[in-house]
Amino acid sequence: MNNLFAAEVGRRVRTLRQRNGISLSELANRASVGKATLSGVETGTRNPTIETLYAISGQLNVPLAVLLADPDPTGHPEEIHGTAVSATLLETFTDHGVTSELYRVRIRPGIVQISPPHQRGVTEHLTVFAGSARVGIAAQPILVTVGGHASWPADVAHVYAADNDVEVHASLTIRHPVGEAGTSFTSPTDLCVAPGGPGGS
Length: 201
What we know:
- It contains five helices and ten strands; from the N terminus they run αααααββββββββββ.
- It has helices at 3-19, 24-31, 35-43, 50-60, 64-67, and strands at residues 79-81, 85-95, 98-107, 112-115, 123-130, 133-137, 142-144, 149-153, 158-162, 168-177.
- A hairpin with a 3-residue loop joins strand 1 and strand 2 (85-95).
């Protein structure tokens, strides 16, 4: 994660936290991340993992994409990394009351990544282009081979893993219901602040 990208992610976390009237300590506690870790994310001095960003976005009740800087217009969007998964945000769109995030993902072999539950009603949809993946609800993962597709409820704990020693290449769409009992989607453009704007905790 480059410095400008990390700083923008941190600014969005801080802005959303302040808009929700949550202290830095309280958000760190809710998201089960260290206060120093969250402080480093907000100041752009720490590169957070996918798991950390998911934990934070879940407590702020926004899709992960809201925290990520817009895809690079030069065609080189930033890749973020987790225990087993590396993901690149390609696009976000809203249609018929559902906000979708489209990611290009790689799943490294030999490691299982466990994702905590997302907001209520969220689903995930994976299409595999290379390799074989085991994904879905942690207790009942689904095997997805080349050219295959799988979907699962993501408001419970779920996993991502390569099924063998070949790295998986896939697309992942995360769908969020908008409105009652769903996620309140905030566009990244709504998070703009003037230079020297509010900060701190």
